[in-house]
Amino acid sequence: MPQLITILILVFSAWWLYRRFVADARKLAEKSRRAEKERETGAIGTLVKDPATGEYRLKREGE
């Protein structure tokens, strides 16, 4: 029984690490794609519209 619990913990940990790795890879790819697009167009940043105020602002890193 202890071996089964250990195996389950290892499998769950591996799955969790894999999901984090994939999520981080997607974020990095999107950031790279956005930076490449900004270089191509000569833009300084990406503007997004704030739904509450209706004003435009620069997109933050975490968005």
List keywords for this structure.
63 residues; 10% strand; mainly alpha; elongated
Helix content bin: 55-70%
Integer-rounded radius of gyration: 20 Å
Strands of the biggest beta sheet: in what spatial order? 1-2
Classification by helices and strands: mainly alpha
Could you report the average pLDDT, rounded to the nearest whole number?
A: 90
Number of strands: 2
Parts with pLDDT < 50 across at least 5 consecutive residues: none
Count of alpha/pi helices: 1
How would the global form be characterised?
A: elongated
Strand content: 5-15%
Overall number of domains: 1
Task: Give a quick account of the main beta sheet: strands, pairing sense, barrel closure.
Answer: 2 strands, antiparallel
Q: What is the succession of H and E elements? A: HEE
End-to-end Cα distance: 45 Å
SSE topology:
Blueprint: H1 2-41, E1 47-49, E2 56-58
Antiparallel strand pairs: 1-2
Question: Quick summary of this structure?
Answer:
This protein has 63 residues and is mainly alpha-helical. The chain has one helix at residues 2-41, and strands at 47-49, 56-58. It is built from one helix and two strands; from the N terminus they run H-E-E.
